[in-house]
Design goal:
about 350 residues, alpha+beta, Rossmann fold, OB fold (Dihydrolipoamide Acetyltransferase, E2P), five-stranded antiparallel β-sheet, globular
Length: about 350
């Protein structure tokens, strides 16, 4: 259990109340934009920063409690921390870097622990190399090995892929996920990258402007953000100010978004003033005559921009409001999508997520 507050002179106040599973292969992603307070929370858990107030407990152990004057040093918390820049010792070999965290073991036990860790991470052939001789992915595995060798109770990962180039990052993403599943221990992972969060996490905690906004399964948080700040933090591309103008018995509502009527699922428990959130990947684009479709929202508009994004292309359509869509580069070529062209966008009603906004 993490419940803490931390303030910096002239900076934001960070507040976080978060439950971590005490055992099992569960990866909790602490997600949010740069400067939101993610790394500060991680450092407080590790014992490298001291909260102003609150408590940090893991299982039946209290690591920090401001009211009781408890503040265990990092080495007694048994938290394995992987730094963003890996922080390997340049003068030590791979084996010596991994052995650094288990220096209190007898020589024989230490050698065995290092050998087991090197084997787990497929680093045996690199044991005598130094960091300068390693690739980015190899450095990451060595840093992870150093964090794992002491057999930590919880693993703390600070932007574990950010120091890598894009091709290496894509390769190691799935490898890291498989490794975390095999380790079967609680993990708190900090990232601001949506793809990384989706690929590595089981649960997500969104922090924005120093406050924890929403906690839940990855799919729920991305698909149904709790408020406007969460929607913006997780990258919902289209957020519209709208008003409910009709509620239907079948669980649907009609909303008016600046004169454009949309059908959405009624989430219940919200007033008529809403934000309508639509993810770009939920938008289907078509050109020319369209037959019967299951989507309830059919929007005609003009292409205002086409932006290549690797194998994808981001399309912004002016259909009374700016609607973002993502298609493959091949689909973009097949449809011959260009600025100024007229297209039809389809959005299914369950893909229009409503958030209460208060006010008129």
């Amino acid at each position: 259990m993490i419940q803490l507050e931390k303030a910096f002179p002239g900076g934001p106040r960070i507040e976080c109340a978060l439950e971590l599973p005490a055992e099992g292969a569960s990866v909790t992603v602490l997600f949010g934009p740069s400067g939101a307070g993610k790394t500060t929370v991680l450092r407080c858990v590790a014992g490298l920063e001291t909260p102003d107030r609150g408590a940090i407990r893991f299982g039946d152990e209290t690591w920090f409690d401001s009211a009781r004057g408890i503040d265990l040093p990092p080495q007694r918390r048994r938290a394995g921390l992987l730094f963003q820049d890996y922080a390997l010792f340049p003068h030590l070999t791979v084996a010596a870097n991994v052995a650094y965290g288990v220096g209190d073991l007898p020589d024989g036990a230490r050698r065995q622990r290092v050998d087991e860790t090197l084997a787990l991470l497929r680093l045996e052939a690199l044991a005598d190399r130094r960091p300068v001789q390693l690739s980015g992915g190899e450095k990451q595995r060595v840093a992870l090995g150093r964090a794992l060798a002491p057999r930590p109770r919880v693993l703390l990962l600070d932007e574990p892929l950010s120091a890598l180039d894009a091709p290496t990052r894509e390769t190691l993403r799935s490898e890291l996920r498989r490794l975390l599943a095999r380790l079967a221990q609680p993990t708190l992972l900090v990232t601001h990258d949506r793809i990384e969060a989706l690929a590595l996490g089981d649960r997500m905690a969104v922090i924005s402007e120093g406050r924890l906004r929403q906690v839940g399964p990855i799919e729920d948080v991305f698909g149904r953000p709790a408020d406007l700040e969460v929607a913006r933090a997780v990258g919902v591309e289209t957020v519209l100010s709208a008003k409910v103008v009709n509620r239907r018995e079948e669980g649907l509502v009609i909303i008016d978004a600046g004169g454009v009527l949309l059908t959405a699922m009624d989430p219940g428990g919200i007033d008529d003033a809403v934000f309508a959130c639509i993810r770009a990947e939920e938008v289907v684009l078509e050109r020319g005559p369209v037959g019967q479709v299951s989507a309830r929202n059919r929007l005609e508009g003009t292409v205002s921009s086409v932006t290549p994004e690797g194998p994808l292309a981001r399309i912004v359509l002016d259909c009374g409001f700016s609607l973002a869509a993502v298609v493959t580069r091949q689909a973009c070529r097949d449809l011959d999508i260009k600025e100024g062209e007229r297209l039809t966008a389809f959005v299914k009603s369950p893909s229009v997520h409503l958030i209460g906004r208060g006010g008129p």
